[in-house]
From TrEMBL:
Positions of transmembrane segments: none
Gene3D superfamilies: SP0561-like
Protein name (Swiss-Prot/TrEMBL): DUF1858 domain-containing protein
Organism: Tissierella creatinophila DSM 6911
One of the Pfam families matching this protein, by short name: DUF1858
Domain DUF1858: 3-56
SUPFAM superfamilies: SP0561-like
C-alpha cells in the first residue's frame, strides 16, 4: 500500500497501524486525538513544521 500526502491520518492508522511509531518519531504525538482523524498527512506536516518529503519517505519504507 502506497501512502500519499492526501491520506487522512485516521485512514492511515486503520490501514497500517505500525505507522503510528513513525508518526510519533516525527513528533506527531497527537495521532490519537479526534482532530487528527480528519487531517491529511500534508496538513499535519505543515502544522507540526515537518518536512513532508522526509515523512512520506519514512512512512513508505
Amino acid at each position: 500500500m502506497e501512502i500519499t500526502k492526501d491520506m487522512l491520518i485516521g485512514e492511515l492508522i486503520r490501514k497500517k497501524p505500525e505507522a503510528v511509531e513513525t508518526l510519533m518519531e516525527f513528533g506527531m504525538g497527537c495521532v490519537g486525538c479526534p482532530a487528527s482523524q480528519m487531517e491529511s498527512l500534508e496538513e499535519a506536516a505543515m502544522v507540526h513544521g515537518l518536512n513532508l518529503d522526509e515523512l512520506m519517505k519514512a512512512l513508505n519504507k
